[in-house]
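#structure-requests
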Amino acid sequence: MADDPFTARSAFRPSRQPGRPRPRAVGRNEIRVRTRELHGYRFAYRMAGKGDSTVVLIHGIGDSSATWADIIPGLAARHRVLAPDLLGHGASAKPRGDYSPGAYANGLRDLLSALGIERATLVGHSLGGAVAAQFAYQFPERTERLVLVGSGGIGRQVSPLLRAATLPGAELLLQAFQLPTVRWQLQAFVRIMKMLNTGLGVDAPDLLRVVDALPDASSRSAFVRTLRAVVDWRGQVGTLLDRCYLTQGMPTMLVWGGRDMVVPALHAGLGHVSMPGSRLEIFEEAGHFPFHTDPERFLGVLHDFISRTRPARFSPEEWRQLLRTRRAQARGRGARSLQGRATG
């Protein structure tokens, strides 16, 4: 195709997309939690589908692979789907360790290797978006596409609730949320916010669900350690937007809720502008969890993005050239700069 955007010479060379397998309905009973031990720790994950390509779904902070329950069956009809519980989350181990995006990216690489998965399309939500982008930065040769959903790591701004949770005493506060009287007050607050149709009311039920997923001290400690690795009282600790130029040729899509009160939709625009050629999808009435608000639309957008793009192919020589010059050298008819991504 003369206008094929993937004809650009860049650090990522597109490959021919394999034929799509015939869709097959995947029942929820086929999507069970499995475990594998790596480095002496238990890693839990959900896996479904038998497609030629693999899609990895990475949840946000305090959440688990269960958050993708409405997405996995439809996605698994065309692709192999892997949804891990990040270390410190869900059914995975919760050691006293490194919960930074870089460490999570390493752990994800090891899990993929243990499962025999060489390359994948990464879909990351919130913290999972930062992990997905960090994975693509650290292991570009193993990344086919990148989808960032309400992702962290793009800008500094973040919900005051998350900033407050990084302060001393946060674990005690999270423990107090489990008390019956406090739970009743929180639920009443959520009902009021929903009745007033506020942005916080859109996200409050999911945020309360995340708090409910922290029933013991080890879970709360892992949550606080993870949060403090990426957020402090001033906002998000870091952003890797300065490295977007390294991802030219990487198919990238940003999906955001227009009423996101955790990571504001302003970050979607910032990321889109910083990633030439990226695709932007705004779910106007959704909050921080657009795949919960409208799972059918989310699944349709994801299928469309994957079907319309070719997996990126990595070239070490051109990656080296990008590091030296901070720009791609496009050659040939129709060549142009392509997708960048946030890596944070």
